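INFO  loader      accepted 1 record
INFO  loader      residues=344
INFO  predictor   begin
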Amino acid sequence: MADISLLGWRSGRVSRFDGAEPARVARVDRGRLTVLGACGPARVVPSAALYADDSGGPAVGDWVAVRGEVAVELLPRTSAFTRTAAGRTSAPQVVAANMDAVLVVDSLAGPLRLTRIQRYLAVAWGSGASPVVVLTKADLCDDDDAEVAAVRADAPGTHVLAVSSLTGQGVDAVAALLGPGCTGAMVGPSGVGKSSLLNALTGGAVADTREVRDDGRGRHTTTARQLHLLPGGGLLIDTPGMRELGLHDDADGLDRAFADVAEAAGQCRFRDCEHRTEPGCAVAAAIDDGVLDPDRLRSWRKLQRESERQQARADARVRATQQARAKALVRSVRTSRAGRGATR
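INFO  predictor   done
INFO  writer      dumping tokens
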């Protein structure tokens, strides 16, 4: 029997299972879950109860209660990296669950994409886990120290590491973040080196790798989210590259990712200050004094507007669902009454 604390289990989670056993979701396939538990890996069927609420169903990293060959309950999450599902929808999609750290991975092989990192950090801060920026392909960068300094200046309070899966630079520092029983999740676009970093951390070729395309855009090598066990006892969730990372209910994450902007905004004279030409605007004063980068304010505004639009869409979706349920209930009652009347 394995010690499930090495899989990230915390003793204060749940104590009653009514004959079921806790297991951690390592992979989600259509109609099947691969789970890790005290008796090792197993393939189980998710019951309908796992999709009964707004959780979106089981995600990699989740804990489930397993009875026999069926996962009967989805246990509460301590953290979740959640985006708006790609396409014309407002539905949330949990990319990874129950992480201690979110590794926001981007590449040093080309110009820094600070706005892209800002977006990922906003979601990462809102996940309930601690974000770390991992800048890969340091061997292809002429001055990785300068690039790291630039990201640190743009991401106050966030740990930033430069790594090279080819030379091994920084790989031990990443591994040190994921001690026994600690879980990390790698997120980022395609082609930034997530699969190569996973191979370097595991010491083997557990993930396929491909060359970046001629136009600099990444290629999808990881096709499914999966939980991997690391040699040092940590756990790492590998995720496919994301073409879209839509914000979803990330107001708190935005405030933490843009703590400098949020702090200045809290000192404005008027609570509804739009930080443009209002008197007593502390944000404008910080920009004038050179304390706040105006690009940071522009990025914050853009992501804030997106978050507000998405929240409005989500609220509309909830109202539509509630109205549909109410109409269905009315139809059911009418049908029932009509049936009783016909039998009299």
